[in-house]
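JOB MANIFEST
job_type = single_chain_structure
chain_count = 1
residues = 370
[input]
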Amino acid sequence: MESDNKVWRTGYTTGSCAAAAAKAASLALLTGKVVSEVSISLPGGGQLNLDIAWVEKGEDCCRAAVVKDAGDDPDVTQGLTIVAEVSLQVGSVTITGGQGVGTVTKPGLAVPVGEAAINPVPRQMIEREVKEILGQERGARVAISAPGGEAVADRTMNPRLGILGGISILGTGGIVRPMSEEAYRRSLVPQIDQALALGYRSLVLTPGRLGVNKARQLGLPQEAIIETSNFIGSLLEECAKRPVESVLLLGHLGKLVKVAAGIFHTLGKLADGRRETIAAYAALAGAPRQVIEQLMNMNTAEESVEILKGTGYTQVFQHLAAAASRRAAAYSGEKFTVGTLMYALNGDVVGYDQGACQIGRKLGCHIPLK
């Protein structure tokens, strides 16, 4: 893969690792042969060769391992050892999770509550590779583990999604594309499905951990809080595809001012306009030229709080919140109502609109008008 004149090295998913380890273990179990490499089939077609780190032969079962290589992608599972233990049984192929693989405890995910967090496509890959070795007439029990996965899982979305005790075995294509923004966006979407499965039709979208903490502080239900990162627009689009009735945008003013300007991917290097947007709304509120000049010369959007507070124009943030709601509703095709609440770095709420108050009440949080 080539980008920005650099050749980025692709890697492989934990699902591919599990399938390859299961194939190597099955081969040792059936034939006694220990291999150092296997070839597996990719879901979209083609083959992938993976190195086998080790194979252990036993009387009733065999184990094999693959070390996860994410290529140049900043994947937290990089370097984890994915282990498959295979034993024969009558009937079908049963896939379970072991040490370091999480268990699903909340509804709304692709895997039912109570089962190991091994997603459907990796399960299909594992079963296909095992059956290729053992044949259609034999059944097998395959236990997938990831030693050290418990610690790594704390750096993923798993705790938020109710996946406890370890990582998820993931991958829809088998290959990790380095620096894949699309893959990261996809990883955020299950939060929406889970909130809906738990009965929430009003959701809170917030760009980051500070917003999650602020939402909790305000008494908003944890299960309704959706972390968007910089992909506010993408998550709004996903909400519009589902039976969502209302969305509360909650975040630092520096992010949500961009939404007020119609910017829905809030990464700074892609688009900014915060100074210009705040200054324009201040001008509409009647602020004098010297205030506008101060706003246009800010280093950070945070400075606008003191500038507008000191000059008596704090209502500008209410107008910006209302503008962000209008823009987000229009962007989402008016599929649901939107409210917006902005806060400063010290945690003070600086602006919100009537929509925020109404949605907050639906979620059991009272946001009083100032």
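[summary]
The chain has a mean pLDDT of 93.
The longest helix spans residues 14-31.
exit_status = 0
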